Known about the structure:
Elements: E1 2-12, H1 21-24, E2 25-36, E3 39-45, H2 46-49, E4 59-69, E5 71-77, H3 91-103, H4 109-125, E6 128-134, H5 139-151, E7 155-159, E8 161-162, H6 175-189, E9 195-201, H7 209-221, E10 226-231, H8 235-244, H9 251-257, E11 265-269, H10 275-283, E12 287-290, H11 292-297, H12 305-310, E13 314-317, H13 329-343, H14 349-363, E14 381-385, H15 390-396, H16 402-412, E15 418-423, E16 426-427
Amino acid sequence: MLKVFRGELLHFLADPAKVPLQESYQYIEDGLLVIENGLVAKIGEFAELFSTLPADIEITHYQKGLIIPGFIDTHVHYPQTEMIASYGEQLLEWLESYTFPFERQFSDLEHGKKVAEFFLDQLLDAGTTTALVFGTVHKESVEAFFTIAQQKKLRMICGKVLMDQNCPDYLSDTAQSGYDDSKALIEKWHNTDRLQYAITPRFAPTCSTEQLNKAGQLLAENPSVYLHTHLSENKAEISWVKDLFPDSDGYLDVYDQSKLLGRRSIFAHGVHLHDSECQRLSETDSAIAFCPSSNLFLGSGLFNLKQAQAHNVNVGLGSDIGAGTTFSMLSTINEGYKTQQLRGDKLGPFQSFYLATLGGAIALDLEGTIGNFTQGAEADFVVLDCHATPLMARRMSHCKNLSEKLFILSMLGDERHVKSTYIMGEKVDNKA
Ligand code: GUN
Ligand code: ZN
């Protein structure tokens, strides 16, 4: 019932961009994390808490590990796992050439289960414990994903893709069948164990107005489900949306007119947003998934984090596998840092670890449930190893403070530096 971990503890309490840095996090050099029935009971200094514990309690001591909440990936496609690293195209051609043919295979439930198993193990190896996940147009893809995620006791959000135009016939639903299939999946899976549903229109170009309106209707009928889609990722995509929806006042407005914005709405990318769109995302409490690895890989552009922050928009980090090239949130931070360098902006180490943990939880409206070690939160956490590789160990020997430690971890780190991943206080045993 009671599990106790000793080590260096770090978690966030608020956004370092919004409060004085020292108030944004709690860092305990020699701390105890006490877990009861899979939930955080308390954290504190070892010296203070130890005497309050039962005398015979067993303590797992990570001498060199940094214990932080599990990473949160706010945008990823599990069916694209096996097509990661497909060469040479930008978004629209990449979808046609690689993505659509690959997604076709997910009409087969057993295929979906095999890929979901592998995908979730990759996430866990990388220290990611919660993700907002695209399925394919097939309801079987979501059935497969939730079945495996449930077996692994994970907190996961997934949905069936809606697309009824500008896509191959073999991947097309209709406004009505998309609504019916999504509704049935919501009834079966939403809030079952730790699973939640996201209504998932692929993006405006592949959805008729009728389909988007039906998605809005379904969201109104089920206010606790999520809305997950793509937004303003690529310039050719944006001008296509303008042609397809001449009556809308920009890309975001297409979704807005169908009543798709809100506290549980997450828009992937948002690389090319106008101030007025950031304003609208902010006033509706919608969130953006910042996917730097994908944005660089597909040549989509450099996300303007400063603009989103200036408008107080919720932002999380996303791997966007298979357009992104890494499952690791450490590597994703690395790519994010470089995108901001190219803009002439700085993504600081506290800010980036915030985005990968509590920022993601807030973007998903799951603050208090995951993302930090607040009392009662689900105890999904990771132990990072600053000495897992010779280069990391050597660089760390010159490290002067926590800020530098986080920066080095995120510039040189990846799956190899995730020593252990814990789900509800239980160690995941498939870590390599
Ligand atoms: N826009 C619409 N579909 C997709 C997709 O599968 N990946 C990315 N990166 N963008 C999209
Ligand atoms: Zn995507």
